[in-house]
Structure formats: structure tokens, C-alpha cells
Design goal:
Helix content: 10-25%
Low-confidence stretches: 370-390
Strand order of the largest sheet: 15-16-17-11-12-13-14-18
Strand content: 15-25%
Order of helices and strands: HEEHEHHHEEEEEEEHHEEEEEEEHE
Distance between the termini: 83 Å
Number of helices: 8
Shape: globular
Number of strands: 18
Length: about 400
């Protein structure tokens, strides 16, 4: 009979096998937990979600702290993460992005519940378990008001080409109609963590980006909305761009921002920096007063170095002694560019690095009308990032 030390040694050996060195559900390195009946290794965050499924679905143990029996160890060795994926992830739709260690809780939990509780991806799973694949949906969501931290319940309708919402479900005329081709939906965005089951939808409206924050009462519901939007948009992209590959289209369905955070900007008519919230969204660089604002105060689409764009830490002489300052140079500003101030040296390096990668990166695969050089806001008093020519 194997001793406890022998069993623990076998578990450690199993962790070195292909696929077992990362969490089976989110990919986190060095998992220290396991679902013994499923034969998979987990990180502590995903193990916590598995515990909420109940022992009838997943029985969780700590690899280091709990006692193990010969049978449970042999089960872990005989199955493992790679083999388990063949069963539990056999029919994962292309519109469902797998979570990563940085994903929000709602994304991880719904992925885990879809796999092991609802069994949406098993080889024998019927299509009825994946209603979002139709790309059609309607129902109530809570929507944040444009100018206040208040939420209203609105009736949303997703059809093959648009996402619309109504004040009441009986209304004939929608409050807004949003083309799917302009939509991005993401869980991992600033301001979208106001509620556990919240989602940020961005789109173009009158030359500006519009932030639409919504949430639902359950994680399952908001995930189905997210997946239905992705599915509907993929179908619309296939129809609009039939010459592009499936991989190219999938990359365009939805995405997370490259970087977001506070920077300080200097208006041309003032000598003091102002703190603003910036977002780098693919090639679009925009800023807000706060992350939950509906509209940005200014934005620009960044072009290549051949177009005259540059990111540099060579700053005007009067700013040279101020740490954290760097310049975004644009081709249509005779004064050379726009000074930006990061709050730490590390933040400065990160912002310069990601902006440089956009400037030096490849052009967008497809254009949907959101790559104009600049957007000028006539009702905005602060034009320092409206990028108008001098």
C-alpha cells in the first residue's frame, strides 16, 4: 500500500505531464488544486468556482494540503488535463473565447459552468444548449445613464445586422439602433466592473465612440448576450467581407483594450497638466474625464511612422526637468505633438511601448469607417487632443 508521501510524489510527477502544468480552465501556471472526479488540475481561483458547483459535479482537493487515496491519485494520472479537454471541450464554438488568468470572475465562472454543469461542449451536446449561436436575442438589460451613475432597465433586441434598445418592450420605435459592424463588446474594460455581471459595449456615433454599460441579473444571461452579439457580428462580417479568412474575421468580432489608465495632458492654452482617463483601443487613442463616461473628450486614430506619427521622450525644454513626460507626435500639428505625463516611470515606459507598437504595427486588416485620422468635437472646450491642425 502506498504511503502518503508516495501518493504525493505521484501527484507531483503527474503535474509535470503535458497539459497538467497549467490550470485546465484558465491556463494559470503551476496549479495546486484538483477536481478529483474529473481528473483535472486547477488554480486556486478556478478551484473556488468548482466548489460552488457542488460535489455532485466537481470534488475539489488541494494537492499539497489534503489527504489522497490510491484511487483518486490513479484517476488523476489516468485522465489529466489534456484528455479531459477532449471530452469537456469537444464542441466549443469559435465565438466563445476561453478565459485566461486575468479574466473577470463572470467569464471564468460561466466558462466552467458551461463545461461541467450545463455540458455545452461535450461531443453529444445538442444545439439547444447553445441558443446564442443563432445570433438572435431579446430581453431586458440594465443600462447606465449617459450622465449619471444611475441605471435604467431597457429592452434590447439583437437581429442579424443591429443591436437596438427600447424604453419599453411594447415600444415600436427604438431609442437607438446600433450597427453590429461598429460594435465591440468586452468584459475586461475600465468601468465594466461596476456590477458582477456587467458588460461594456462600444460603438461609433456621430464621429465619436460611445460607451454603453449594461448588466444583467445573472452571469449566465450576460454571457449569453455577449456570445450572441459575437455570433451575430461574425455572421455580419462574413457577409460583408467574404474574401477574408475565418481567422481574420474572428479577430475582429470583439477585443479587449490594449491599455487604459490615467495620464495627464496639457491643453495648449494652459501650463498645467490635467488628469484624464486614457484608452488605447486598437489604433484609437481617446480620453475621458472618468472611465464610466459615455463619450470621450477627444480621440485620434493613430497612423504609422510613415504617416508622421511618433512616440518619443524628447520633450520641449520647459518640460525637460519633469519626470514622466513623453510626446505623441502627429503629422498635422506644427508644434510637434502633444505632451503627456505618466504618474510613474513604469507607466511611462508601458504607455510608450504600447503606443510605439501601434505606430510600428501592421495596418488594420479591414476598415469599418473607424480609422479616420481625427475626430473634432465642436462642443468640447478642451481641444488639446482633438488633433486639429494649427
Amino acid at each position: 500500500m502506498s504511503t502518503d508521501a508516495d501518493l504525493r510524489s505521484k501527484l507531483e510527477d503527474a503535474l509535470t505531464q503535458s497539459g497538467n502544468h497549467i490550470c485546465s480552465d484558465c491556463g494559470q501556471q503551476k496549479p495546486e488544486w484538483a477536481a478529483v472526479n474529473l481528473g483535472i488540475f486547477l488554480c486556486i481561483e478556478c478551484a473556488g468556482i468548482h466548489r460552488r458547483l457542488g460535489t455532485g459535479i466537481s470534488r475539489v482537493k488541494s494537492i499539497k494540503l489534503d489527504r489522497w487515496t490510491e484511487d483518486t491519485v490513479l484517476n488523476m494520472i489516468s485522465i489529466g488535463n489534456s484528455q479531459a479537454k477532449h471530452e469537456w471541450e469537444a464542441k466549443v464554438p469559435v465565438v466563445w473565447p476561453k478565459p485566461c488568468p486575468e479574466s473577470r470572475l463572470v467569464c471564468r465562472e460561466q466558462w466552467i459552468r458551461a463545461k461541467y454543469e450545463r455540458k455545452e461542449f461535450t461531443p453529444e451536446a445538442p444545439d439547444i444548449l447553445r441558443p446564442y449561436m443563432t445570433g438572435l436575442r431579446q430581453g431586458f438589460l440594465h443600462k447606465r445613464k449617459k450622465s449619471h451613475d444611475e441605471w435604467n432597465t431597457r429592452y434590447f433586441v439583437l437581429d442579424p445586422m443591429n443591436l437596438s434598445y427600447f424604453i419599453n418592450s411594447q415600444d415600436v420605435k427604438p431609442k437607438a439602433i446600433i450597427s453590429l459592424l461598429t460594435i465591440n463588446a468586452t468584459f475586461n474594460a475600465p468601468g465594466s466592473d461596476q456590477h458582477a455581471n456587467s458588460l461594456l459595449i462600444t460603438y461609433r456615433f456621430d464621429g465619436k465612440h460611445r460607451n454603453l454599460f449594461v448588466y444583467s441579473d445573472t452571469g449566465h444571461e450576460i454571457m449569453d448576450w455577449y456570445l450572441a452579439i459575437r455570433c451575430a457580428k461574425l455572421k455580419a462580417l462574413r457577409s460583408t467581407f467574404p474574401h477574408l479568412s475565418e481567422e481574420e474575421l474572428i479577430e475582429r468580432i470583439s477585443w479587449d483594450f490594449i491599455k487604459s489608465g490615467y495620464l495627464h495632458k496639457m491643453p495648449p492654452s494652459q501650463k498645467k497638466f490635467q488628469r484624464r482617463f486614457f484608452v488605447l483601443d486598437k489604433t484609437n487613442f481617446r480620453y475621458y474625464n472618468k472611465p464610466t463616461d459615455a463619450y470621450p473628450l477627444g480621440e485620434v486614430t493613430i497612423g504609422s511612422s510613415d504617416d508622421g506619427f511618433e512616440i518619443t521622450d524628447k520633450v520641449p525644454e520647459h518640460l525637460a526637468d519633469q519626470p514622466g513626460v513623453f510626446m505623441l507626435k502627429v503629422p498635422y500639428r506644427s508644434k510637434g505633438g502633444f505632451p503627456l505625463l505618466a504618474e510613474t516611470e513604469d507607466e511611462k515606459k508601458e504607455w510608450m511601448s504600447v503606443l510605439k507598437s501601434v505606430i510600428e504595427g501592421p495596418p488594420p486588416v479591414i476598415s469599418l469607417g473607424d480609422d479616420e485620422i481625427c475626430s473634432m468635437y465642436e462642443n468640447e472646450r478642451d481641444y488639446s487632443l482633438s488633433f486639429t491642425a494649427d
